[in-house]
Every structure is written in C-alpha cells, then in structure tokens.
Amino acid sequence: MMRNFLAERSWRTQLAREAHARRPWALALLILVLSAAAGAASSTQEAGKPAQDSPKPSYNDLLARVKKGDSTVDFKELRLSYADTSEYKPYGNDRETRQKMFAALKAKEFQQAVESAEKILANNFVEINAHFAAYVGNRELGHADKATFHKFMFDGLIKSITGSGDGHSPETAFIVISTDEEYVLFNYLGLRPAGQSLITQNGHSFDRMTASNPNTNETTVYFFNIDKPFNRLGQSLKK
C-alpha cells in the first residue's frame, strides 16, 4: 500500500498546501481567549477509554519499548504521553529541517532525507512525516531493517489516529496532538483540505475541517480534537 501511496501523492506538495492553508497568526489571539475555557477541562477527550487503576506507563517507558519494535505498545498512548512532556511543542516544530527533508526526498537524495528525518525524530519520535521519510530513504538506500522499523512506526502512528474515532462528529473526532497530524491523515487518505474552522463544545476544542476527494470532487467534513495542542498553547502564553 505504501508504494501505491507514494506513487499517487507528493508529500512535499501537500506540505506546501498545508503551509498555505495554516491558520493565520491572528487566530492565535482567538486561541488564547478560548484556551482559558479549554484549560478548565479536567482531562483531554479520550472517548471510550475506561478508568485504569494501575498507573500509566511514562512516555520514556513506552518510547524504550517501541524502539525495540514492541508491537504491543499503544501508539495512541505513546502520542498522548509525549504531549505531556516538556519537549512537546505543537506549534514550534523544526519546519526548516522538515522542508529540507522533503526537498531531499523529492530530489532522491535519500541519505540527506534520512539525516533530516533522524534530526527531527531526535526531538520528537512521534513525528509521522519524519518516519515516512526515514522509511522511504532507508528503503531506497537498501537499509531493509531500518526501513521496516520506520514503516512499523508510520503504520502504528497513523492507525492510532484513525482508531481514535471516525472524525464525523465532535463526539467521535480524531484525536491529534498537532495540526500537522490532520494534514498527514488527509495525505494518507488521499484527500485535500478545503476549509477549516475552530469550534468548542462541552469544554473541548475542535478543528472542523472540510476535505475534498480529487477523484470524485466530493467533500466531507471531519472533526479533530485539538485539546492537547490547544491547552499547551494556553499554558505557554500564560508564562
């Protein structure tokens, strides 16, 4: 599936579209106002997840396991636990390195693409774009074991988003830890973002995204729960 996906979609093109479609900084002021309400929520939305008596594993514990290829790791829990660390910066990712990574991938400079991906992953090991580039780069360089590992990570991270809901309503919204993950999912599904608005409901924050299918021209509305990035932004602006 990944090879067909590579043939059909240019992730670098989608990255440029994402940068163009990204909400203007003026919206950050609105986010600041709404973050006060969002911050009052006792926890982020985790639909259908029962209360647990035993303590949750830490991000470092989950990270150590997943780096060993442990397929029993809950990738959603991995992403959400990363969002609770001090390293989590949903609106401050290294975009320059990522642009270089995709440029190298497009130019078939696979070693450079891998090096850029590794630089990103050193700070954020749940960055899906970086695992995608590392998978392709290592595959083309003949590094089969590394390619297999990064495909394992890519698949697990994508499924952790698609498995968090169906995205058709706020109650069943996809849970993301960055707006980048919204565009990654659209790329994966072969959809093009066509519109975005911010809504709040029952103490939670959502991106209401309209996406179009380029093959059928049909449009669909998807909802993304953005409590994690929203609350982190509110915390950073209070400092």
Percentage of residues assigned to helices: 40-55%
Structural class: alpha+beta
Question: Quick check: average pLDDT?
Answer: 83
> For the CA atoms, what is the radius of gyration?
18 Å
Distance between the termini: 45 Å
Q: How many strands in all? A: 4
Q: What general outline do the C-alpha atoms trace?
A: globular
Count the DSSP helices.
11
Helix/strand order, N-terminal first: HHHHHHHHHEHEEEH
As a percent range, the share of strand residues is 5-15%
How many domains, as an integer? 1
How are strands sequenced across the largest beta sheet? 1-4-3-2
Largest sheet: 4 strands, mixed
Which regions have little confidence, pLDDT < 50, spanning 5+ residues? 1-51
Report on the architecture of this protein:
- With 239 residues, the protein is an alpha+beta fold.
- It has one domain.
- Helix content is 55%, strand content 12%.
- The chain contains eleven helices and four strands.
- The protein has helices at 2-8, 11-21, 26-39, 59-67, 75-82, 95-106, 110-123, 128-141, 144-162, 179-189, 227-238, and strands at residues 174-175, 192-201, 204-212, 219-225.
- It has a four-stranded mixed beta sheet.
- β2 (192-201) and β3 form a beta hairpin.
- α6 (95-106) runs parallel beside α8.
- The chain is globular and about 50 Å long.
